[in-house]
Amino acid sequence: MEKQVIQSVGFRNICENGTVTGFQFKIRLPYYRGVFLSQLMPGTLFVDGERIEKEDITWCLKGEDYTLEEMKEDFKTHWTPTDLMVLKVKKPGGLAQGYHDLKYGFCFTSSYMPPFLQAALDPDKESFVFMPEFGKHVNERRLLIV
């Protein structure tokens, strides 16, 4: 597992029945305790400056796919810091060969954090109080599809 949240391994186009339907990339959880899927607050994905809608992203943990709506209600599935999450993005034709700039933000709630800090969480902006154990909210990486 790489130190960066957005991993370089696993960045590729998705092919279904001979047709490229999108692409995927992997992220790691920058939090030492792990979180339940219902705690996640997905942000906005930008690829080469193009905004990808949250509804076009499926989260995959240990081979199980979850939509944003399913994650909001999932209080049982736990994402640990040792598991990579695969984000599958619907994009007909996928991405062209070459380098692509990814920018993605997400954060999560924690039961022991004061309400005023939780209310200020924005997955698309860095927190005004940065705590290394919670990781950065917005992550950027340039990756290569071959």
Explain how this protein is built.
- The structure is a single chain.
- The protein has about 150 residues and is mostly beta strands.
- It has one domain.
- It has two helices and eleven strands, in the order βββββββαβββαβ.
- The strands form three sheets. A five-stranded antiparallel β-sheet has the order 1-2-9-6-7. A four-stranded antiparallel β-sheet has the order 5-4-10-11. It has a two-stranded antiparallel sheet with strand order 3-8.
- Strand 1 and strand 2 form a beta hairpin.
Could you estimate the helical fraction of the residues in percent?
A: under 10%
Strand order within the widest sheet? 1-2-9-6-7
Distance between the termini: 21 Å
Residue stretches low in confidence (pLDDT < 50, at least 5 long) are none
Task: Note the main sheet.
Answer: 5 strands, antiparallel
Secondary-structure element series: EEEEEEEHEEEHE
The number of helical segments is 2
- Total strands: the figure is 11
Arithmetic mean pLDDT: 90
Strand content: 35-45%
CA radius of gyration: 15 Å
